[in-house]
Every structure is written in C-alpha cells, then in structure tokens.
Amino acid sequence: MSARPDPLQGRPLWRTLALWMVPTLLFTMVVGLILSMQSLREVADSAYDRSLRGAIRAIDLRISTESGGLGVELPYPLFESFQATADGEILFRVSTDDGLVQIGDSLLPPPPPLTTGQVVFYDALYYDRPIRVAAYMRPLDPPLYGAEGQNLIIEIAETTESREAFLRTVITRTVLRDLAALASATLLLAVGVHAGLRPLRALRDRLDRRASDDLRQLDPSGLPREVQPLVQSVNRLVDRHRIQGEAQRRFIEDASHQLKTPLAVLRAQIDRGLQLQDPADLHAVLRAMREITDRSSRLTSQLLALALARNSALWSSAAAEPVDVATLLDGVVRLHMAEARKRRILLEVEADAHTGSLHTTEALLFEAVSNLLQNAITASPPGGTVTLTAARGVGTMAISIRDGGPGLSQDLLRRLGSGQRFNLSGNGVRNPSSTGLGLNIVQEIARALGGRLDLSNRPEGGLDAVLHLPAEPSGLKAA
Asked: How far is CA 320 from CA 257, 273, 395, in A?
C-alpha cells in the first residue's frame, strides 16, 4: 500500500507558474527566432545583393564592341573591395544569350529566364559550394557578327560563407539574449511570488499565534484581492464552528440541568424500593419509576430536537424545499391523535389545498408545529378543543394553534415580547409536569427559518400560538 503524499510537500507556487509560463515563453522564443531568421536573411540578402547590383553596373559601363568583338575592362579595385567586404570568392561571366561569346567563369550555372533591363538574384551551386548570383540582361547594340536581336548577359556571383557567418553570429546573440531574458523572467517570477505570498505568511503567523478558543473572524484587509474570497470562506467556516460550539455548550448546560433532577428522583425511588418488603408498596414505587423514565425519555427527545434547531444554521441551503402546509398539518395531527383521544380532546384543522406551500425545511417546521400541538394538548382540559389554522398573508404564512387551557404567565409573555430566550427553568409554563422545552424548541426553529413566534392569552381563556414564517425562501439563520 503506497504512502499518502504529505500535503506540506506540495509543489511551490512559483514552480507551478514556471511550468506553465516557461514552455509558453520557449515556444514564443522559438517562433520569434524563426521569424527573426527569415527577416535577418532578407536584410542580409538585401545588403549583400546591393553590392552585387553595383558590381553588375560597374561591369556594364566597361563593356565595349568598338573592335568588332566584345571587350570588357574589369573594375578590379571594385572587385578587391567587394571581395574584402564580403570575405568570400567573387565570380563573374559576361556572355551573349546565343552563347557565341563568353568571358569569365564559363562553368557558372546557367541563369533562369531573364527579363530585359531587370537584375535577377538567385541561389545556385558552384562545385558543390552555395553561391548567390545576380544576373542582368540587356540588348547588345550593335550585335556581334551580324546577328540580329542579340542580348548581353552579365552575371556576378559570390560564395555565401560570409552571409551565413553573419547570420550565425546574429542568431547566436539573439538566442543568448532570449535565454537570458527567460532566466531573468523565471527568477523575477520566483521573487515576485515570494513577495506576493508575504501577506499570506503573515496571516499564517497570526493564525498560529491564536488560542484554540479564539474564533474571531480574520481581517482580509491588506491581502491580495485573489486571496480575499479564501479568507471569507475561512471566516464562514469559523462562524459555523462558533455556532456549533455555542450550540453544543448550551445543549450540555440544558441537558445537565434538566436530567439532574429526574436522575436524582429515580435514584431515590430505587433506594426506597430496595428497602420495601410489601409487594403493593414495591409496585407503587415501580409505577413512579415508570413515570420518571417516561418523562426522562420525553425530555431527552426534546433536548435532541432543541439541539437540532440550534444547529440548523449549519445545515446546507439545499435542505429547503417546497412544503405543502395543509399536508404537514394533517401529518402532525395524526401523530398526536392517540394522545388527544386519551384526553378526549378534539383536534380541528382549518387549512385546505388553497393554503399553498412554503419553501422551507420540512423537518424543522414539522418539529415546531408538533411541539406547539403537544403543549396545547397538555394544557387543554379534558373534553376541550385544539384548532390548527394556516393563513397566507402578504409575503408571510401564519400557522396558529389555539387551545382552551389556562394560558401563560404575564412574565413569560413579557420576556417573549422583549426578544429574550426562554429559560429552561422557571418558565411559568402551564403544566407542572412539563419540562418547558417545547417553547424553546419552537422559538429556536422560528428564528432559524427566518420567522418568529407570537404567544397571546385570549380573554375568554386559552392561548393563541402563532408561527409567522416568510412565504419566500430566506435561507437558514443562526438560531
């Protein structure tokens, strides 16, 4: 089994950039070199060809036919100067187009088709040596030996060693210059990346110096613009961890406070049962223990629901979906139908298909309505009625649960109106056996779904619990 790579041994950023840039620069350099070679060859040919054109003109001015034949006075000083400059061998030939007269190097390769009055340049081989040839043709007046329409051809050639040496020198210098520029660019890239990462190293040092419980947001100021989205993502992650840590801390506090009393009572009942001999008394103790375990089980379920609500801000927004409100209310009523029948309580639902749907998290909304209905059933007297209503307003949906119980204390209603959270002890709840967690759960879920919970006592008795939720998606919020 191969070892996993160490993430700290990753490739440096400058090397990654170099692997992308250097081949591109090399390709650009090669293409530029090829184009430069073509341009340099054209420039060199133009410069050297100008000398060949001048030599043709000098020879043409020294051709004479006065003696009845063809006479040429060669410009030797020009040839010597030209040969010294070109640093090669100079060849020439003066002839007629019919081949009757040839003066000079008769083994020069024949020229291509020529146009009268124009100098033509071309490359050829002379004893397997590359040469550059300039050829010029003009009418010969008067023609020699009684010929008609005779043309005079002048050819000047030079070996190309000097041209090639010149090109090699220029190209070598160009390559060396480009390689030096490439090396400088790579070095500057490494230095630039090192300098550009300095703010990140400073950010790393700040994180290393932080305490483990320091969950403050990072300050992105002074960081490169490309890095700021990463810092913002880290800040969002830190916020989620902070919310999760706060929810866990509060859950532990709530659980320890709420479970301490039932466990103490249960232990006392067990100790008492161990001392009893009468089966009837022992049976009574067991019934009391059964009630305590049932209440503890219900308390544990509510604590878990409360933890779920408080951690709702960590849920993905993909958890939200269209939820049919009427169908959801029917599901909640079926869940509590058995308990309501035991207490002879009538459950009524005032919602139909026209109520519509909410784009929300179904699990959280179901838990909130279920807890409100549980509280209403518990608080209502036997033979009473609990009504569930759903009504759509302007941009909102109101789900209300009305019972016939004694209502809530004014102190609890005042604290709710001021925006305070419920305490898990001393809530002023209506049922002495209640843990008081149901309203906490609904309040946390309402805040997480972007809504609110309103509670009010009716003059004729009973409590109206109204859950206001946005009709459009608002995303999950920190509870």
From this structure: 33, 51, 17
Please give the average pLDDT of every successive group of 10 residues along the chain, which has 479 residues: 52 78 85 84 82 85 75 67 64 84 87 91 91 91 72 88 83 87 85 81 82 79 79 84 75 67 76 80 79 72 66 56 90 90 91 80 86 89 92 88 86 66 44 58 82 88 90 56
Angle at 52 between CA 49 and CA 57, to 5 degrees: 130
Domain at 15-168, CATH class? alpha beta
The set of long-range contacts for 174-181, using a CB threshold of 8 Å and a minimum separation of 24, is 174/33, 174/36, 175/33, 178/29, 178/32, 178/33
pTM, entire model: 0.48
Sheet holding 463-470, edge to edge: 346-350, 385-392, 396-402, 463-470, 452-457
The residue ranges of every structural domain in the chain are 15-168, 246-310, 316-470
With a CB cutoff of 8 Å and minimum separation 6, the contacts of 457 are: 407, 408, 413, 463, 464
By residue count, the chain amounts to 479
Structure tokens at 409: 């204390």
Please list the alpha-helical segments (H only) found in 62-160: 76-86
Taking each helix axis from N to C terminus, what angle separates 161-196 and 13-61, rounded to the nearest 10 degrees? Answer: 160
CATH 3.40.50.11060 assigned to domain 316-470? The reply is no
